[in-house]
């Protein structure tokens, strides 16, 4: 009910009495006329329309029907909607006694009808369209087309019933018109919630969108405090609709249970009875929000109602199994699961999985957990999926029951029953690197890293040393996680593998010098597969020493990790041990060490390490090596340029380029192909080696299949190192660079037309030539070289190309030399790596 309104005007005299007062003064009439329910006109407009011209005759009382028509016109008159009232109207909140003055027609209409201006406008538009439709049907009928008019009238009635019945839920339930009345319009939070509820595009087909989910909670949470002053004013349909939206299960609704918990508390405070499914969701939300004992007590009390209802029987007991299992009440969880499985309802045996997990968590009930797993496997039969097996394996691995987990994996892999529990040595079908390697790979892929480590420990206790490939995979997964705990585990396990490698190398060295002792023989024998003594292997996982021997991949993982974490001292220690482990350094290891030296600002040591490893140790560098070496130049490290260092960079960069061309390597992916040519050109631009940059671009065209892109040309012209740095100054420079490229291309194409080019659309080959020509024009512009000096360009190019080791490629164009130095294989060319 809207607040009552009354008028009070002590400064006005006259004989006017408002129609609302007249209606109450009439005897025998306890109800106001129906037209007063939508009164929104002013006193002045009413008098101006009912007053007749002065003729000296007594005025007659106006016709009530005419007054109703004029009031309706005033109510929906948009031009006068916001005009001030001629009579002072007041609104009083009966509950609080608060009184306010109504200023405009809109406020008067909202207080008297309970509908805000937006809703009234919508009603007006709807009525207008309905009247226009009826007029059109009448015109058709008057023209003699009665059958057509009857058909249109039926369609009109059907549309009214279907289109304007309100919002519908996922199950087709209708909510009707949703609105919360009984609150002052100045309470903005409630009005915003009403606007949300009135939107036509909310929850289409019973499925809320991401926006619906977010805004529903936003507006409801904002209005909760105000609504709590009068919960009874919230209609049941609104509660049901809010529950429908906030309880919708979706990835876009991550706080679903928290929202349900808050909403159900409010519904309980408002004494709103909840449906059966709403009660179940409320129990689950209460449990997840931390009120576990209270949720289980509520579940127990509902056994007579929800537990005996045919519609809620299955979800009721499924919820009980999950809650009791998580709470540790295994007896009640098993009872609920058995009740569900023995009933006539179509139940899923997978409800046993949470029971198995709860039983396995208690060491004394591990055997009972195994029996429940066997029951589930028997009930599911061939319908048991890989995910089901993974759930059970994870449950056993989480509590350290590796033997039971391995038995489940064996059941998954073999159709015939193979029992491995209690055996000292595993059967040959199970106890081999191929089978156990597949299990470790699956666990690592599923993200169960702690479980994979427990498997490594268990297998070694059975005399099976895990493959270094699988252990390296576990170390890499730990490192990728990024957590400090996992990094520590990875580092510890990797150094255990390195120690196993060093032990093996020492034993092999002793064997070549003298007859090794008996204990050394036994130790070497154990390394190749015999089980260790119990006092060495039985105990905490902290006492475990992995006997899988480190490989070059193990060293590479540690080197990359230390380099990324800038642990230069650990990286140097690693390379010292690398020689003791008799593992030859690889290009990857060399790259990590060089990068580490560069990060530590020890560029001289980095270059000495490069020279030592390539010239003394004979390591073949790859493209990543030269990318790192170019980044060691001072122009790529220092913010402020030093003149003598910049001059040294010119010679050093040309030497790196020569080594890069002569080395035998190939691009291993598009990422390196995108970085290396760009780094080379920018390095030479920064060092102002203009001739060197031209030679490098021409050489990379032949041996890399590289062509400068428009984006690269703009960067080189504007002098910006990257397009990703979005600053105002960079934007200005990029705009200037783009204009330079446009002017240069315009001049190039103008020269082509003068030389006889038709001027039509250019071919891909011509566009490539254009970009190369524009690149060299940018170099001339940066070098401030005049056209007269450019004539000596060929002589300079010959000299520099000899220094950079590409004379045969750039000047002579020797196909044999180009083929020998090509860094792209045919497959890469076919995939278009060299197209950009």
TrEMBL record:
Low complexity compositional bias, start-end: 36-45
Chain segments carrying region Disordered: 28-62
InterPro entries hit by this protein: PPR_P_subfamily (IPR050872), PPR_rpt (IPR002885), TPR-like_helical_dom_sf (IPR011990)
Domain of life: Eukaryota
Pfam families in the record: PPR_2
Family: Belongs to the PPR family. P subfamily.
Protein name: Pentatricopeptide repeat-containing protein
Source species of the chain: Triangularia verruculosa
Lineage of the organism: Eukaryota, Fungi, Dikarya, Ascomycota, Pezizomycotina
């Amino acid at each position: 009910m809207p607040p009552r309104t009354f008028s009070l005007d002590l400064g006005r005299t006259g004989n006017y009495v408002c129609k609302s007062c007249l209606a109450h003064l009439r005897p025998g009439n306890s109800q106001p006329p129906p037209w007063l329910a939508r009164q929104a006109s002013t006193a002045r407009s009413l008098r101006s329309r009912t007053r007749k011209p002065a003729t000296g005759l007594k005025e007659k009382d106006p016709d009530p029907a005419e007054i109703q028509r004029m009031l309706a016109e005033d109510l929906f008159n948009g031009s006068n909607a916001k005009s001030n009232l001629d009579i002072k109207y007041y609104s009083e909140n009966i509950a609080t006694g608060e009184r306010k003055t109504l200023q405009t027609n809109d406020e008067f209409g909202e207080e008297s009808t309970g509908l805000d201006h937006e809703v009234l406008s919508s009603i007006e538009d709807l009525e207008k369209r309905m009247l226009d439709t009826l007029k059109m049907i009448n015109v058709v009928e008057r023209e003699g087309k009665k059958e057509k008019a009857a058909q249109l009238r039926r369609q009109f009635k059907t549309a009214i019933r279907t289109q304007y019945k309100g919002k519908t839920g996922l199950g087709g339930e209708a909510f009707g018109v949703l609105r919360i009345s009984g609150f002052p319009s100045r309470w903005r939070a409630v009005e915003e919630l009403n606007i949300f509820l009135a939107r036509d595009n909310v929850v289409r087909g019973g499925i809320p969108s991401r926006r619906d989910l977010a805004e529903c909670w936003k507006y409801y949470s904002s209005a909760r405090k105000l609504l709590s002053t009068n919960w009874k004013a919230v209609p049941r349909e609104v509660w049901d609709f809010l529950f429908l939206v906030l309880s919708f299960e979706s990835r876009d609704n991550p706080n679903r249970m928290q929202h349900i918990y808050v909403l159900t508390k409010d519904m309980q405070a408002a004494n709103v009875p909840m449906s059966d499914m709403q009660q179940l969701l409320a129990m689950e939300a209460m449990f997840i929000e931390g009120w576990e004992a209270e949720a289980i007590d509520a579940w127990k009390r509902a056994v007579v109602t929800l537990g005996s209802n045919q519609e809620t029987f299955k979800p009721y007991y499924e919820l009980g199994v999950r809650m009791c299992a998580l709470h540790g009440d295994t007896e009640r969880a098993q009872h609920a699961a058995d009740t569900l499985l023995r009933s006539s309802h179509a139940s899923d045996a997978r409800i046993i999985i949470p029971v198995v997990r709860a039983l396995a968590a208690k060491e004394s009930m591990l055997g009972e957990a195994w029996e429940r797993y066997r029951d589930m496997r028997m009930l599911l039969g061939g319908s048991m999926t890989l995910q089901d097996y993974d759930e059970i394996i994870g449950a056993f691995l989480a509590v350290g029951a590796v033997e039971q987990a391995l038995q489940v994996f064996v059941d998954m892999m073999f159709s015939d029953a193979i029992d491995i529990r209690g055996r000292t040595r595993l059967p040959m079908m199970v106890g081999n690197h191929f089978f156990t390697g597949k299990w470790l790979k699956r666990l690592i892929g599923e993200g169960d890293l702690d479980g994979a480590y427990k498997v490594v420990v268990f297998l070694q206790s059975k005399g099976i040393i895990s493959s270094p490939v699988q252990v390296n995979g576990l170390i890499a997964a730990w490192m990728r996680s990024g957590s400090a705990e996992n990094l520590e585990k990875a580092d510890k396990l990797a150094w255990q593998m390195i120690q196993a490698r060093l032990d093996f190398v020492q034993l092999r060295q002793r064997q070549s010098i003298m007859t090794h002792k008996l204990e050394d023989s036994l130790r070497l024998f154990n390394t190749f597969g015999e089980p260790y003594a119990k006092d060495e292997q039985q105990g905490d996982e902290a006492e475990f020493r992995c006997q899988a021997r480190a490989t070059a991949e193990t060293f590479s993982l540690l080197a990359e990790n230390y380099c990324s974490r800038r642990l230069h001292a650990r990286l140097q220690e690693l390379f010292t041990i690398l020689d003791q482990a008799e593992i030859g350094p690889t290009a990857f290891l060399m790259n990590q060490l060089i990068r580490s030296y560069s990060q530590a600002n020890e560029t001289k040591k980095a270059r000495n390490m490069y020279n030592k490893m390539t010239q003394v140790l004979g390591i073949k560098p790859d493209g990543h090596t030269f990318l790192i070496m170019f980044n060691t130049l001072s122009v790529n490290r220092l913010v402020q340029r030093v003149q003598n260092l910049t001059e040294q960079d010119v010679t050093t960069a040309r030497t790196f380029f020569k080594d890069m061309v002569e080395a035998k390597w190939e691009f291993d992916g598009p990422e390196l192909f995108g970085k290396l040519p760009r780094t080379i050109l920018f390095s030479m631009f920064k060092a102002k080696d203009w001739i060197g940059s031209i030679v490098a671009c021409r050489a990379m065209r032949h041996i890399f299949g590289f062509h400068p892109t428009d984006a690269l040309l703009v960067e080189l012209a504007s002098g910006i190192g990257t397009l990703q740095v979005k600053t105002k100054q960079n934007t200005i420079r990029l705009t200037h660079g783009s204009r330079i490229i446009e002017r240069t291309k315009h001049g190039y194409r103008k020269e082509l037309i003068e030389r006889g080019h038709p001027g039509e659309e250019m071919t891909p080959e011509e566009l490539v030539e254009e970009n190369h020509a524009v690149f060299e024009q940018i170099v001339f512009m940066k070098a401030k070289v005049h056209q007269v000096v450019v004539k000596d360009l060929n002589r300079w190019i010959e000299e520099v190309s000899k220094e950079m080791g590409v004379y045969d490629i750039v000047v002579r164009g020797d196909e044999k030399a180009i083929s020998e130095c090509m860094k792209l294989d045919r497959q890469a060319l076919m995939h278009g790596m060299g197209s950009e």
